[in-house]
Fold this protein.
Amino acid sequence: MIFQASVAGRALTSIAILSVILTPAPVLAKQAAPGEVAEIARCIRVAARGRAWLEKTLWGLRTQEAGWLGAEIANTNGTHDLGPLQINSSWVPKMSRLLERPQEQIRHWLRYDPCFNVEAARWIFLSGLEATGDYWKAVGVYHSPTEAKQVAYAKKVASHMRRRFGPDVFAASRGNLVR
């Protein structure tokens, strides 16, 4: 009887261990370290180039994406989201061509260089803004080419921005919203 209880106990322990090992961790379980957050904040200020509306936008994207230095999150479509602002790896070939750098280097910079990652986010957002002429559509384009996903994403970013900057996020920057 003692032998059976011992075997059953070991079997349960083994099952528990396997269940922990085989259970996928939450995708964004890791968070940026405090020093990392300060550096990302500095990079956002620099990338905004004195435009309050753009700094707020980058913060909204940053909060929604919640990445960290070194992040490489697999997506179901085979791409990966990289670094603090979770730049999709589908942008890597275009950035590689524009910057005349190898794709591996661009990918490394997106993961480990917070300012490069934030500048990439700025470029993607502003490209979307130029292409669409619509601020919230550009926020959505940052996330997805699919309109339904764009709308849902823009609502989430707007919510983060209101929480961080108040209900009228752009009150002080209306005059220079798109300069």
User: Anything to note?
Assistant: The chain has eight helices and three strands.
